[in-house]
Amino acid sequence: MKEPIEQIPNNKQENWITYRESAEFKIGLKELENSKGILSCSKVIVLAVALNIKKAGLIDFDKFLESYEQIEDMLSNLGVFFTRDEAREHWNLKHNGDPYVGFFIIGSTPETIGEAMKNSKPFEGQENWDKNFGEAMDFPSSSIEAFVSKDKSLLPSEDEKDKLTDEEKAFLFFKLSKDNWQVEIQWLEQIISAIKVYSPKIYNEVIDNYYIRQKQNK
Rounded to an integer, what distance in angstroms lies between the CA atom of residue 81 and that of residue 115? Predict the structure, then answer.
């Protein structure tokens, strides 16, 4: 079992440019690539945080396929800070969610995780929790506004969404906004480019899963 997040020194992320070339990082990357319990979309979020493209993220995994300790070891090897989101797990069980799903909040620093944890409890009725949580998860502000608003006019039209490439659609893990979707896609493309370089295996997994879903939906 790894030490609690607040006790782990922040030396890996401070030197992340050299750390990502280390043997430990490469071990963590291989563990992430071969993970059976983490879905491809969560693998993208993990690697985006590990590469400092994204400050924080929420990931889930299948506890039937992998243990908490296995996920923690993998995240530690990648130099990612983490904490188990037990409150979300309890909420998930209370609302008849999958009992085999576990949740982690991950981040580039303990501070980013602390901010996310403060707003990771929609079931407690905090005002603006979804907006605050989206900000803590480092999503574009315009995307957050489109997500939390009930106004569908803030979302892109079908014609605008049709302009996305299959690659962009495959990797899209957040809401696009009508007025700023091109800029939001540029941010997504930074993540896609990094995934291509650091893990062609995860890249191909995301693309393959997208086409499988497209085929199933026909």
Answer: 13
pTM, 2 dp: 0.86
Residue type at 204? N
Do residue 126 and residue 174 come from a single domain?
no
Question: Could you report how far apart the first and last alpha carbons of the chain are, in Å?
Answer: 45
Q: Which two tokens stand for residue 66?
A: 């992998």
Q: Quick: pLDDT tens for 145-155.
A: 888 876 777 77
Q: Are residues 69 and 9 in the same domain?
A: yes
Q: Which domain holds residue 215?
A: 140-218
Helices 23-34 and 68-77: crossing angle, nearest 10°?
Answer: 140
Task: Give SS3 for 138.
Answer: coil
pLDDT digits (tens, 9 = 90+) for 91-126: 788 877 788 899 999 998 888 888 778 776 655 555
